[in-house]
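tool=predict chain=A
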Amino acid sequence: MTLTLGPILRSAGIEPADAQVIRHAYVKEHEDTGLQGIHADSSDAEILAYTSQQSTNPRIFPVVPPRIWVVFIREGGDRARLWSVLENRGEVSNDGALRTFDLVISDRMANLRNRFVIG
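tool=predict ok
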């Protein structure tokens, strides 16, 4: 039997349909925006700031994103490690290309931060 993400999220009080799961990869600079990406030594503050900026393109990011974001960071190959669960408090700016969200770190799944790896 395969263990999937849905039951793990539910055990943390997160309904999968009401959450956005994000897997960040290490990117030096984004070709489409020119914005700096994240790297293996990025601080929590840098990852939070990076995550808070999302595309306005609805093919890339939902027009109405959910309140809970579950953020993973690329670990290698097809694996990613849980960085944190964030609460989206809403969009604070939109310049037509990028939207910025007010995100705060949640206590949800705190015991699994940097320990939970998915493939």
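The chain has two helices and six strands. Helices lie at 5-11, 44-52.
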